[in-house]
Amino acid sequence: MPKTILIGAPIDTGQKRAGCLMGPAAYRVAGIAREVISEGHGVEDWGDLVLPELKPVSCPNPMVHDLAETVAWARILMDKVDDALSEGGFPIIMGGDHSLALGSAAGAAAFAKRQDRPLFLLWLDAHSDFHTPLTTTSGNLHGTPLAYIAGRDGFDAFPAFPIPVPAHRICMFGIRSVDPAEQAAMQERDIAINDMRVIDERGIVAPLREFLTLCRKEGGMLHVSLDVDFLDPTIAPAVGTTVPGGTTHREAHLVMELLHESGLVTSLDLVELNPFLDDRGMTARLMVDLVGSLMGKKVFDRPTRSK
Question: Using CA atoms, how far apart are residues 230 and 176, in angstroms rounded to an integer?
Fold first, then answer.
């Protein structure tokens, strides 16, 4: 795997519950760089991005808040992720709420376009995030990035997405909270929605391996967006959008080990960690542990923890 480049994205504007801006610091305190190095990979920390100068933007939906800030974050993240990939790096974007994927996925798509390679997207999340700025009723733009990536209308304030990702290159995993309007829009596009019922019936491995096989067959780059609420809140409480019935510790590590074995992942988001809601850092440590599995750590490498 190429050198890992850590990019802090202290974004709190995509939703209304303060605290996600502390996420990058929490990942550093939890030892993310040390975890990457322990698996034999180089690491560079590019520090935290700073919100650039805001430009006037507008949206006809009066519920949307912090649009100018979210657009500005998206622009700078798009450039930084593209830069990291262009340097031959493996960017890990430490968030920050999920609106950061508006920029990180766009940066990955811009790089993939220049390489003439298709971009694939694995969305590990309780929510589908398939609203647009025009359809959101909460006004929270962390619920819109997948719609932007898939090419839905309503993102006029944002940079044009380099090449929208077609439905067959998107895999949603762990979904268990979808608005009716989002569901209808996704069904129009025939996106693979592996909700928790699919995982309960088929297991984790089969649907994920099918998607990875397709990515490999098409020579794709794989951007993974990991939301804390992909995990069950009993093991990962530090998120403002808890949904019961998430993946277990074992299932989450299995996903990451399969991704490592595939050798296909080229960039990673870590989103929605709110340290203010955590229990003695347990969520941050678990997320860092999952990064370790993505980097090659196996179950039998894990030391016994004191009780």
Answer: 9
Burial letters for 29-41: b for 16+ Cβ neighbours within 10 Å, e otherwise?
A: ebbbbebbeebee
Does the active-site annotation cover 223? no
Query: Which of 66-70, 200-204, 290-294, 298-302 has the weakest average pLDDT?
Result: 298-302
Dihedral sign for Cα 167, 168, 173, 175, please: positive
Nearest C-alpha neighbor of 102 from the set 136, 149, 138: 149
Q: Which of 66, 129, 182, 289 is catalytic?
A: 129
129 among known catalytic residues: yes
- Among residues 35, 69, 97, 98, the one annotated as catalytic is 98
Write down the pTM of the prediction: 0.96
Alpha-carbon span 26 to 288, nearest angstrom? 10
Active-site residue, 179 included: no
Superfamily name with CATH number, domain 4-298? Ureohydrolase domain (3.40.800.10)
Instruction: Identify the pLDDT of residue 299.
Output: 64
Using a pLDDT cut of 70, give the percent of the chain over it: 97
For residue 112, give the H/E element and its range: helix 101-115
Q: Please say if the pLDDT value at position 254 is more than 90.
A: yes
